[in-house]
Amino acid sequence: xxxxxxxxxxxxxxxxxxxxxxxxxxxxxxxxxxxxxxxxxxxxxxxxxxxxxxxxxxxxxxxxxxxxxxxxxxxxxxxxxxxxxxxxxxxxxxxxxxxxxxxxxxxxxxxxxxxxxxxxxxxxxxxxxxxxxxxxxxxxxxxxxxxxxxxxxxxxxxxxxxxxxxxxxxxxxxxxxxxxxxxxxxxxxxxxxxxxxxx
Length: 199
Hints:
By secondary structure, the protein is mainly alpha-helical. The protein folds into 2 domains: 1-53, Homeodomain-like (Arc Repressor Mutant, subunit A); 56-190, Tetracycline Repressor, domain 2, CATH 1.10.357. The chain has 9 helices and no strands. It has helices at residues 11-27, 34-40, 45-51, 55-79, 84-100, 108-115, 122-143, 151-167, 173-190. Helix 5 (84-100) packs antiparallel against helix 9 (173-190), helix 7 (122-143) packs across helix 8 and helix 8 runs antiparallel to helix 9 (173-190).
């Protein structure tokens, strides 16, 4: 995929990716065709294919952009410093804020996985890479809370987050967010209880 000669993505590529990201998230991946993206991005078919060999390359780029954004948000939370418990709460609060956001349609990565069931497909591999990173990042945070192995706490957090992301589209976002945050408090409490940790 080509960008500008300065090393920055070209304006046309950025416009195509921004347009696709907005529509993909709101309406799904398979239901949105290349022609619509080209039209709404006010570009040409030739320009599209100069930057993206095919639609699935655009889908992967969409997920890569979402991944970069979430990693940057996580990094800003860590850079703010403070006790590990507060960092866990800050990450959870950021997730809850997403669920409450107008236009929320769930997790972009879970949505993509539902549309691309083959685990070897490039889209699913990108989903797996993101989820591996996220699990590792939250497990590391929990390892700084209390003592003992943090793997179970990290997995539990991710499962709580996944459930909240799905429920946030189906039920009252405020109730879902509060329930999710309560669950995270339970995880933090469990890290303070001797003998409660599992690998």
